[in-house]
Amino acid sequence: MRLLVVDFDYFFPLPQSPEDPLAPLFAWAHFETPYHLGEAWEGRALAFLLRGLPLPEARGWEGFWDRFSFAPGARLFYADSNALAFHPRVREGVEEVVLFDAHHDAGYRPLGEEPACDDWMVFYARQGVALKVFYPPWRDPAQEPEPQVPLERAVDPGGRVEGVFHRAFLCRSGAWVPPWADGAFFRFLEAAPLSKEALEPLSPRPFDLKALKRRVEGEALGLWIMERLLRPGQGPTFPL
C-alpha cells in the first residue's frame, strides 16, 4: 500500500540564502505550541507590514492533486501536525511513503518514544517502509541535515507522479505556515478528489488583518516622529 503525505509548508516559499535581504523577516522559531500556532504570527506579520511589504502567501497549490492517481476508495486523512502521519489509521498496511514537504521529517534531534512532526518518518523506517521525499523547487536540500534513516531525497521535477496511491495524509503545519494562509489551505483540502477524515479538530485560525493595518498606521507615525526627534533637520528615513 502506498501512502502520499503532503505538508502544506511545501507551498510556502522561504528565502534560502542568508544574503537575501528578506531572510531576517523569516527567521522564525518553529515549535508546535499554542503560541507558535497562533499568537506568534501577529508580530511576524507586523514585521512585513511596517516595512510596506506584502505578507508572504502560499503559492503553487492549485492543480496539485491532478498529478496523482488514487485507488478506488482511497481516503485522505488530515490534521495540523505532520506527526499524525503515523496515526494508526494512516499507517495501517503502508509499505511505501512518498512525502511532498519542505523538510524530510526523518529526524533532526534525539528521538522520543512517540513520533513528532520532525521524526515520524523514522518510525515508518523502523517498520521497513520504503521512504521518499520530494522537496519543492524553491527549497535547497543542502540546508537540511542528513536523515537519520535511509531515505530517497529529490527536488520535485513536476508533472505526473508515477504509480497509484491507496491513501493520503495532509497536514497544515500551522507552526510553519501562517494563519493568513489558512484560506488557501482549506481550499486545497477541499480540492482533493478523495473522501476526507479529520484526525484532530482543525479550523481557520483568528487573524485580523484590518486591525493589524490600523496598528501599522499608528506605529509608522510614531516611528517617523521618533526619527525626527532623534535626527533634527533631517527628513524621515522610515517609509510611510
Could you name the key traits of this structure?
5 helices, 240 residues
Describe this structure as you would to a colleague.
The chain has two domains: 2-13 and 57-198, no CATH class; 208-240. The N and C termini lie far apart (56 Å). Strands 5-4-3-1-6-2-7 form a seven-stranded parallel β-sheet. By secondary structure, the protein is an alpha/beta fold. The protein has helices at 34-49, 88-91, 120-125, 182-191, 209-230; strands at residues 2-7, 69-79, 96-100, 130-135, 152-155, 164-171, 195-198. Helix content is 24%, strand content 18%. Helix 3 links the parallel strand 3 and strand 4 (130-135). The protein is built from five helices and seven strands.
Unreliable stretches (pLDDT < 50, length at least 5) are 232-240
Domain module tally: 2
The assigned structural class equals alpha/beta
The termini sit apart by: 56 Å
Approximately how much helix is present in the residues? Answer: 10-25%
Q: Give the tally of β-strands.
A: 7
Report the total helices.
5
Order of helices and strands: EHEHEHEEEHEH
- Biggest pleated-sheet summary: 7 strands, parallel
**Kindly state the mean pLDDT as a whole number?**
92
Strand content: 15-25%
